Amino acid sequence: MATKLEIELTSQLDNDSWTWRAAGARSPKGTVAAGLLYDGAKIGDVAKAEVSMGLDGIEILAVAAPSTKKQADNRIELLGSSSDEPLVTVSLKKKGRPNRGGPRDTAERPRRGADRGRPGQNPRDRRAGATPDNGDRPSGSTRTTHNRTGNTERRRPNRPEPKRLHPKEIHRREVLASLLPEHRPIGEALMRGGLPAVRSAIAEQNAKALAAGEPETPVDATLKIAEDILPRLRIATWLDRAEAAMEIANEISLKDLRSILAAADRSAKNQQVTELVGALTEVLTSRAGIETDRWQREVAEALQENRLVRALRLAAKLPDPSAKLPTELTQRLVSACNEEMTAQTPSDRWMVLIDAVAQSPIRRQVHPSGLPSDATPELIEFAKENAGRIPSLAALTGVSVPPPPRPEILAKVPRTSRPAKHTTTTDDA
């Protein structure tokens, strides 16, 4: 079953994956695919993850970005009573001689500045979270983001978040019910944590038996029973996840669909597994095509509206690993970047364009004509930092770019296992 766990990112591996461990502890620990992480992830981040306690250990399903701490604004919050009476009253004596035989005329008026809030604001509104400087923000207001140059870019409304996968335990309970009564505790331990959980349970039970002077549980025989039950539980676990995904196949993320299909045991001779693999593959192919078409359409619309930065931001967000921009749209995007990244463009606009191009899939095809003649030191430094991602900036800034690394797969293959060069051999006489 899916559960929540706080994890800490410890390092980044070469195969587009990260290592993690439980926040504040040495274990549990493992690896997580880079595609499941949020933008801007870095070593030392502590984030909340949705994990599945599987038979082979802990599997991370999704990782949420850590929430930013709200900075103190150094304001003093005034907490008042629920009444509308002024906090301070002042009685002023009227000028002139007082009337004899009667009370003196007094005038009561609230002191200026007694209520530290805005005019007409009740102290209860301040406790409710109203901001004294900007006022209450309407719930339907458009959110804005500020880039490093100070410009404000308007965001479009976010799309609805995909649904989370909550598998049931129907097939796993059926496997447990089919076991012998004395084997069910072994199956329950396998459901909790796989073979490591069975070994821990055996060690704990033997420790108690040794203290009580009772015979210990045979380790090898128990593990042999667990290994016989494990394949059935693996298939049952996958069926529970696949059926839960099939119910909301059009609403969960494509990453979840791909992870379920990747975990399918296609060698198992199970009719249910074969049918669900075919159905989920068809849904994944259909949805990937729809998402790719919509993505390409949004990039083309932003480019048609002369919103180059937005088009580059959209081009960097691939809806599917296999998604690509059409050749015609790629050429239009590259031409628009080359036309705007010229010496006549201001430095602040250059920095925005460099940041957007560096994250886009066309970063190696862009060739600016030249930096501004009055380029600021910040722009020169920022261009040097991104020369590795945009090779054409190296010639403009005088930076030598190292050659690209070897392919990842070839780099991992030991030299002894690579095919040897053809050599001439002679047979022994």
TrEMBL record:
Region (Disordered): 87-172, 396-429
Ranges of Basic and acidic residues composition bias in the record: 102-128, 151-172
Entry superkingdom: Bacteria
UniProt name for this protein: Uncharacterized protein
Organism: Ferrimicrobium acidiphilum
